[in-house]
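2024-03-11 09:14:02 DEBUG pipeline.ingest accepted 1 chain
2024-03-11 09:14:02 DEBUG pipeline.ingest length=313
2024-03-11 09:14:03 DEBUG pipeline.predict start
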Amino acid sequence: MKGRNQTTLSGFLLLGLSIYPENQHLFYALFLSMYLTTILGNLLIIILIQLDSHLHTPMYFFLSNLSFSDLCFSSVTMPKLLKNMQSQVPSIPYAGCLAQMYFLLLFGDLESFLLVVMAYDRYVAICFPLRFTSIMSPKLCVCLVVLSWVLTTFHALLHTLLMARLSFCGNNVIPHFFCDMSALLKLACSDTSINELVIFITGGIILIIPFVLIIVSYARIVSSILKVPSARQIRKAFSTCGSHLSVVSLFYGTVIGLYLCPSAKNSTMKETVMALMYMLVTPMLNPFSSTLRNRDMKEALGRVICKKICFCP
């Protein structure tokens, strides 16, 4: 208990982002501009979907939730990172570290579940076009999103409570720019076997199973297209699934690079770069790869601008 109280008072030092002093302002401006782009891009998507009735469909309902998740996911780490870049002591209090870990798990897991839901939506749209409206009812869409929130909230809370029961003493340096769960376990003085077991079990549920379900969905989509290999079907499949595949590739590419492909050589630098890709670059690029290049979104933007600014009927 004494070790925990000491950690609560002193917190942790986040030393994962090593930048030469002469480059500090350059990287600060870069990260700030990327973060603002993430906020504005995802907010624009959410607002457009809310304002334009043509976008009140299952696909855009899920996309609005994905944009909200990306916005929050990036906001969990970037404000603290930007603040620490201007500070001589890049620290975070014990309670703040646990809170950051909780929300990182929550919104990171939520994106994984939402990508599965979106894959199912695309599968139904292509393989069962005549029954799409009856299958993807508003009630089912809401239930899928609520279920995603419930599962991810429980998972994040489970890991946070297990982490809170550990005692910390001695070294309080985290070799990351955020409160990484594996780094915290290495600093713990008490037994972490239960934490490691839960991570091993739930890791497959949260990451591997959703990824497999996405692969299965697209395998069925490809199989359906090959049965009737018309140019119209292929164009529809590309227009329907291309943006979602881009988001899936960005998300799982960075996750695999960060957690499943460890490297002994320059591991700290690699983990830092991959974490920045995962927490900053991916949420920033998702709006462009998923919706802002979409024709429906461009038309919706034109209608909203015309209605709100030009006072068109």
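2024-03-11 09:14:41 DEBUG pipeline.report The CA atoms of residues 123 and 217 lie 6 Å apart.
2024-03-11 09:14:41 DEBUG pipeline.predict end
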